Every structure is written in structure tokens, then in C-alpha cells.
Amino acid sequence: MDRLLGRSAPSSSPSAAPAGGRSAVVAHLQDFVATRVGVEAYVEPPNAQTPPTVLLVATTGEWTRRRVPDERTGFDVARSLGVPVYNVRFTGYPQRMRDWNSAQHARQKNRPRR
């Protein structure tokens, strides 16, 4: 998995991303898949504000998103996690994700202020 996210031998280059960051991303994605049911991956293309990302969505609609170096890597990462993977350009976002977001927003809105 580290190879997919561009991890290689330690580098002395100041622009090289810290290995701990990549390890944390890998661990987070693996944990999300292992602790949720029916996870699917959606690869998101880069846009003016964000780089390419992999979005994981569980059956409940709960989701997580992490950056990847490029879209191809996003597909490779999702396949290595053993989950179905889709290109969000063609499929759009699943309704269950939108429903979960709405429910979370309503919970926060109704939460008493301290």
C-alpha cells in the first residue's frame, strides 16, 4: 500500500512528504474499511481547490476522504483495499452519503450551545 501512495526509500529532499503522513493515511483507510460494512470507493478528480482524492463511503453513508498523488493511484489504492471503486465523474456521489451529511448537519444544529 505504501508503494501505491508514492512511499519509497527515505529521502533527504526537503520537499519529500514525511513517511509518517503516508503511513497514517494508509492506516486510516484500512481501519475505515475494516470497521464499516459495505464500503465503496469513489475516485475524485483534481479541481482548482483540491488534488485528486479517494472517498470511502460505508453502507450507513459515513465517509472519509484522503488525498492521493493522482487518479490512477486512487484506483490502485481502492483495489488494494478490496473494495469496489468508481469514478465519481461518471457515477456521482451516493445518496446515502448525502443523507448522512444532512443527518449530521441536523444533529449539530440541534446540539445545545455551551
Automatic annotation (TrEMBL):
Q: Which domain of life is it from?
A: Bacteria
**Spans annotated as Disordered:** 1-22
* Entry protein name: Oxidoreductase
Identify the species of origin. Answer: Isoptericola chiayiensis
